[in-house]
Every structure is written in C-alpha cells, then in structure tokens.
C-alpha cells in the first residue's frame, strides 16, 4: 500500500490523505495480469458517471483505528476482486478502431481519507449488484481480520465461442466517445420511505384490481410501489427508474453495526430520475426522487400519494449535500420513506 499526505479543503469537504491500495498478494505494480474484455452491456454504460454511494452509521470507532483498518482490509478484499485493482486499457487497431478492456495489473484502488466519506466505482467495471457484493465482502474482512472465507465473486465475462472478444469501437480517439454530458436543470431531490405495512396495503390493492379468472400473475412489492408513484406522477413527466430494492445495501457490517441509511450523490441524476433502495427496516423501501422544484412541490402536495409515505427527507443538507459537493455539482433534494 502506498500513500500521499494531505490535500484540499473547501467549506464542507476536507481531504486529509490519499492512498493507492494494492492487493495484499500478487505481482508488482504494472506487472502483466489477466485481461478482461468488456462486453456490449459493459460498454453501453462506459460514459455514465461513477456509482457514488455513502453509508451513514450510528457510532463508528476512533478515526485513526478506523482508517488504518479500512486500508488493510481493502487490500485483502482486492485479492478477491482483481478488476477493481486494475486499470481500463485501450487498444488501437489498424482499421482505425479501438477496443477497451480491464487490465488486472494490481496497480491498486484509490483510497481517500476525507471529512466527508464516500465510495465511487466505474459503472462499466461494476454494476449495482457487484458494487454491494464487494462492499459487503470488504466489511466482513474489516470486522473479522481472521476470516478465511468470503463469498467469491464471479469475474468471468461470457462471449460466444470462436469470436474475438475485443469489441472494436469506430473511434481513433476516445475523446470522440466520452463527451461531457450537459448539466441538468436545478433539481429538488427527495427520499420517500414506505414501511412494510404500507407496501403490503399497496400490494394487496394492486393484486385485487388486476385479479381475473384467467390470470395467476401476482404483483410484487416493487411493482406495487412504482405503480403507485407512476400513477400519481405520470401526467407530469416520464420517470427514469434506477437501482433496486434487491441490492444488499445493508449487508455490510464493519464492526460498528449495520448502516442506518444509504444515500447517493448527484452523479447520473436528471429531472424525473428515481432510485429505488431497500429501507433500513426489513420489508421497507426508500425512493430517491429528483425533480425540478415545481414538479416536486405538486407531488409532495398530492394527498393520495402521501397517504402511503412514512417519512420525507430533504437532501439539500446532510450526507446527500456532502456527496453532491464531492461531485462538484450541487443539487437540492429530498428523500421519502414508505412504510413496510
């Protein structure tokens, strides 16, 4: 593991130190390792913003002990996730195209110790399920340094036999592919929490309304909550649904208890964006909604919609705002919590 000392300060985020954390076992930096070619669905999200999530805990341990333990456990966790300690690699071909792969060369992952902690990961390298799989494995290593087994990830990418796995992109310069996305309008963000009882009521109503003598399909909790949201909002604009309540976001325990909440930054958000999270209580659900302020105001004043809402958080303060600061793209926001 290597590191450099302190860096910058702004009004809410203070960077204390930056370290490059390498796997605890493996070759030297820059050594040749396995190369993983990216699939079409990996490349589809190459220009997306990073997955950026923050976890809130009730009572973490002393800072120095915490940082030292996180660094050493991250080094061990990377032993099981070589792509996350590697680098994206570009190969230029004679026909004027390029292909992109992950070079598992053990150069390490960046670990930043700051006054506003967060975690970010390239979305092409890791999807939401894999992100939380890694974070939960890391927490297990941190909490139990003597642990000899953790759930092993599936790292192989599948390609049909007898074809070149390198997908040639028709670009000679990657700057032609990766272009800056226009900034969205100022958004208001809300987290809505549904309790288990509220979700059960919505689910029961939805199944009663759709039940016929020839239909055996059952509406799920996920479908019932999104239907409720869509029904109340579809007249205003289309919604872009992201994340999933099935991601194991609360499965990590670094030794000081499970998280009390999960929040994300401004990355990949736009007007009409909805992120669906599992709630802190089993069976509950959180919706992280980003809308222009006028539309958000109409939704919050919708009595029928709010009957099922248990709690509402404005994300213009607290962790959500800190994460937005880290992205250097501040947006106002709110969180809603639905009863189970």
From TrEMBL:
Pfam families: Transferase (PF02458). Keywords: Transferase. The keyword Transferase applies. InterPro entries: CAT-like_dom_sf, Sec_Metabolite_Acyltrans. GO terms for molecular function: transferase activity. The keyword Transferase applies. This is Acetyltransferase.
